[in-house]
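ugh ok so i messed up the first submission bc i forgot one of the chains. this is the corrected input, ALL of the components this time, i swear. 779 residues overall. if the numbers dont match what u have on ur side tell me asap before i send this to the collaborators (the ones from the other lab, u know who)
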Amino acid sequence: MKALTEHLPVEVMPAPSQVSIPLVQHMGKAARPTVAVGDAVKRGQLIAERDGAIGSNVFSSVSGVVKEIDKKVTPTGSALHIVIENDGRDDGVYFEPLQNPTARQVIDRIAEAGIVGMGGAGFPTDVKLTPKNAVDTLIINAAECEPYITCDNRIMLDYTDEFLRGVRYLATALGLKKAYIGIEDNKAEAIELVSDAALFSEEETGIEVVVCALKTHYPQGAEKQMIYAVTGRKVPVGAIPSAVGVVVCNVHTALSTYYAVKEGEPLYRRIMTVTGEGIVNPKNIWVRTGTLYGDVIDFCGGLRQDRRVVKMINGGPMMGTTVSGSTVSCTKTTGCLLLLTDSEASTLSPSACINCGRCAKVCPMRLMPMYMDLYARGGDIDTAVKYGLSNCIECGCCAFVCPAKRTLVQSFRLAKKQLKGRKK
Amino acid sequence: MSYTVSSSPHITEKNNSTRRIMLDVLIALIPCVIAATVFFGYHVLINLFACAIACMGTEILTGCIIKKSFSRDSLHSSTAFDFSCFVTATILALNLPATMNVWGLNIVVGAATVFSFDTVIVCFIGSIFAIAICKMLFGGIGRNFANPACTARIFLLLTFASSFVASQTLGSFGFVASTGATWLGSQYKLTDGTTLFNLFIGNVGSSAVGETCVIAIAIGYVYLSLRKIIDWRVPLMIVAWSAVFAFLFDATIVQQLPLDKGLLNALANVMSGGLLFGSVFMATDYATSPNTFPGNCIYCFGIALLTMLIRVFAAYPEGMSFAILIMNCVVPLIDKYVYPKPFGYIGNKNKERGL
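and heres the new structure output, hopefully the right one now
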């Protein structure tokens, strides 16, 4: 499934005539707009600033005029969007590039450039880089275990040098002399290229980069599983990685860190994979944040007319969220736009659980999905928690193997929401 | 154009469905059906057919009654079409004698029974009991607390105790036809080469036609294990523990055999009765076995212990189905207390320290 795009070098998608930039592209509170309708903005100009400790700055991805500030649909709900009409001049404003930055400078730059975890969660990277516990290990999560997605793989192949420099900036920020890159062994080319390049560039910076080839096994890229595979440490139940002295960052976060530090470029664009049987020309592309899915699809040749596209997914097939229409915008965390046809997507309706126990066998967190589902649906959240509900990482392995096609993850998400609501 | 909005994951494993699993179990049962037909005659197929029809009909009917709707939709959504009722039917048919004589309705020509109406009626009663009472009343597929076929067999065994006599084999392939007495029921438990060979190929009298042929059961076991339908360790654990207890109880305590004879006795014990058939096809039933490997260890130990206790010390020569039924009832308890600790579990002490 990765074969659709893994051999395609990254192309640059031209800026669309209009972008619609959501102010929630990260975990935490929405950013506060700093521009008003009618203002002229430049590419890379701050248009909404961070509000609170967990949050992020948002930048314009084109130069032009603010046309509208309004609430619109995002993949996970709704948020204020700033709509900017592109004047085509593409004037940019950047930060001052940094030479040999200190840890503090890197962290400050990451904060002001609006860099967040670009693997999908969107947690502010500067917060991650200033953990409460002492950290001795930096892991770059390059597993990319989800089927179809290839953008991290392409970054490592096409931007090897930039990526490795970014990794070293992240290590610098944490005051470390060593960083690990965990790559699944189905990306042999990337493993070889990155290992060689890491050896070459070690001397000038004094930071060692070690590539760990990991078994190709979904969900190898899940944070806790990645940490266990690379360091052998188990993150305690309910704790974050820094509890065992580890910080995990995504490949693209490292790349964006490079651009922010070395070139002063704020985060207004990213590399994404557009794929699935439903698209005419699957591609890996540089896309500006705020570009509508519809524009991305047009750039990739449109939808295939000979197939029936049933699902448009923001993210991968295992953990991505579906969107109902193509008026949703790309954000800092949109790593993949997946168009699944009826032959790829699961469309069977669920039947009764036969208690086969396959879900428990495949659960990477060693939970009991069949009982969690049974009790969650019955309204007995406490018993569902006993069987592990609150430790569920929603990877989807259980629902993938379920012969009865039960919508397990859906019921866990709902039950978690109910649990959260009850605690308040 | 708008698209389907749903929760992840958006793809599922291909060629994986409840029906596919049940089909695999049916495929695994084919060798046993063939062996039973060879050794006990065409009556086996008649019984199988009767059970299949009765199970399917009962499942459709009870489903509609429970839903209080006989519309086309409720017929279409019936769980009867996932083939699980055929699995129950096949296992039940293989757990009955080839022919029974209860009401004297059999068509007998000379000394041979040509068509056994009695057995067909018994098959119907057993099927209705298995599906309506054991399965559907407890919530249908996946929610039954006991194996339907196993419970139905015990129900029939207790109800028609006097008619549940072991069928004798036909003497196919030039083998000497068996007398009908099972190895477990015979007074002098011989363990010479011929006896062991007959036990192995299945040329022994039995009140459950499908359980005699070791080869056929082994083929089914290998198929189910390779297809990963069952956990291959479960039948092995039951057989191993049973051999241990057979040696302890039967050979050592009761018969006080010397070591070599005792080991042969344990081997014969394992190969006779419903032990192998039950451990492969009945003890591995999804709904009625624990969902974890440690849980299964307890379950297998319990089945083996109870089987041998009943066989050696109780009034019934055969104990497998009773043992399975009893352990089925223990399964909810096992699953309540034996479940895996989540990845990264650190115990309560550390949790209090706020880690």
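quick check: Residues 389 and 399 of chain A are 15 Å apart (CA to CA). that seems consistent at least. Chain A touches chain B through 65 residues (CB under 8 Å).
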